[in-house]
Amino acid sequence: MQIAAPYLLFLGNTPHRLDAKTASGILDWRPQLCAGQCRLDAGTVDLGLPDMTPAAAAAAGVRTLVIGVATFGGALDEAWIDTLLAAIHAGLDIASGMHARLGENPRIAAAARQAGVRLFDVRHANAHFDVGSGRKRSGRRMLMVGVDCAVGKKYAALAIHRAFARRGMAADFRATGQTGILIAGAGIAIDAVVADFAAGAAEALSPDNEPGHWDVIEGQGSLFHPAYAGVSLALLHGSQPDALVLCHDPRRTHIDGYPDYPLPTLAACIAANEQAARLTNRAARCIAVALNTRDMGESQRADAFARAHGETGLVVFDPIATGADAVVDTLLAEARELPQASPHTPGDHP
Asked: Can you give the residue ranges of the D-glutamate N-acetyltransferase-like C-terminal domain (predicted)?
């Protein structure tokens, strides 16, 4: 996909920044691509960009309207359609990370054909993936895993990749969701792959590489999420991670949107993810904890770091507030490198 910039970030009518994580992620990591925001009413979350109508954005040189919100289940909100049509009539392409395809809406499809604009369904890979093989691949892999959804797995991966790049170390950020793909320009939306092939897609995302090369893989979901644990397990098996980074928002007490499901302890989450990862890489282990401390004061952040370190004994960082240099420092300072993955032997369970 070659999605033309600059972008107009469409925020719909959501009042919550967490629901605008696609737009927030693009703005945080590729601000140079973001010309403005489009909001449907005054109560909509404000990212601090200039408010623009689609027509005004087109006049200012914007090329693509990016749907920057994620609805539950990934459906297009009917309240958005008139604005999306206005963008098409103004000559803007539209990029969407929703499960619902833009072209499946008859009005959008007809308008796009008439206007000659492009519709990008970022979440849908037009590729065939094999089932997971469990085959040992060369190179190193680091996977972000979560206590819950939307706790900063993408940000942690991007920060770690940036830290590798600063040291001149060979590394790639591997996007597994729509926002990561829009940031990186490539990737596979794992949660849109048919379940039988999801582990195989994870293998395809991080193929054989040089022995010292790191693939830093954006995680999805959580093993403790009642709806989205499946995609997490596919990534754990298909990525064959040498290293895991646990991502957490210390202010949460239950799975977001599921008040009957309390969050596990960090220790329990690490144990479950390590056990699952060791099906395909017996050497997998957690090496750090990434905390989302957005809007916390310095003392609150320090307390959260101390609690997480006390519980796990691991390096603790915030991708935005502190960066991830400490993670790379830990890898470089170890007396020995992380052991290479061992191929799985049938019947040899961790």
From this structure: 131-328
CA gap 224, 188 in Å, rounded: 23
Mind listing the pLDDT tens digit for each residue in 165-191?
999 999 999 999 988 988 887 899 998
What is the dotted CATH code of the domain comprising 7-121? 3.40.50.720
Terminal-residue alpha carbon distance, the chain: 40
Strands in 285-291's sheet, in edge-to-edge order, are 171-174, 214-217, 140-146, 243-248, 285-291, 315-317
Give start-end residues of each CATH 3.40.50.300 domain in the chain. 140-333
Provide the CATH topology of domain 140-333: Rossmann fold (3.40.50)
Q: How far apart are CA 120 and CA 88, in angstroms?
A: 13
A 10 A CB-CB count for 112 gives 20
CA pair distance 90, 313, nearest whole angstrom? 55
- Asked if 264 contacts 272 with a C-beta cutoff of 8 angstroms, the reply is yes
83-110 per-position pLDDT tens digit: 999 999 999 999 998 888 999 999 999 9
Distance CA 162, CA 149 (A): 23
- Chain centroid to CA 98: 14
